[in-house]
Design goal:
It is built from eleven helices and eleven strands. It is an alpha/beta fold and 297 residues long. The N terminus is likely disordered.
Amino acid sequence: MDTVRETADDGVRCARAARRSFLGLCGAGGIVAALGAQAATVTRKTVNDAPWRLLVNEAVTGESNLFILTSRYQPFTEHITGQLRAHPAIGIEPVVNISRFMTIAQDAVKPQLVFGKSVNQLAKLVRDHGYQPLVRRADPYKAAFIVAKDSPFRTLADVARAKARVIMPDEFAATSAVARAELRRQNASAVQVVHTRYQEAVAQQVANGFAQVGVVNPTTAKKWVEDGGRVLAETLPVVNWSVLASPALPNDDVQQVRAVLLAMNAQAPQLLAALGIKQWAAAERQDYLALLDYTKE
């Protein structure tokens, strides 16, 4: 009887030990599974929450305060974030110097979005570095050649014959690029070209007699005429300020962002107006190639 009882007790103990072992394995497996699920969730959250970058260059408009530039684009990026499905936070990176802007845009780790006003430089990003055009200002860009009211010049041919002094903004600016293109197109390149950093300084230099002809953007040209000056000629119309997407941005995101930006024409016109934009239009790669064909860059 004792032997039978001991054998039975041993059986019970073995069964209990086996049960504890099984539950232990299940518990460990559950912990591992839970940790794996948590890690996957963290990984997904990290990917989804990775902030985007908006690289901004306003060319030669004269604003160089980075705090002001960042604040200017904050409502714009917040609107985009709120409309996209993944709601990515978008960091704003204003860059005043055009050359520096181009260097950052060509870095190995590229910004998801780029907004710029020097469209000849944006065109190079599209043609040479795979950036994807999203939207552009609906109205075309035309630079203007301005002269004093009493200037003897009536055509660009007159300017060339006189080998006149022509002042332009920064040599990397679209205004300067299309102006040189127009002088070349009209066989009027035999002029003395000088550069100053900002658009506003161009008009001041012409008014002060430092140069006989100035090249400015449409806004400055309009004010020049209102103040009594003349517009001598304009360049051919080209693609205007644009938003581009990184070469690495997935097509689904590209389509979403383009749709959000175009919808701003009706949904958020006040945000566009704050940036000096009346309306967006869909941008096409050919727009930028045509610009570079004109400027021969």
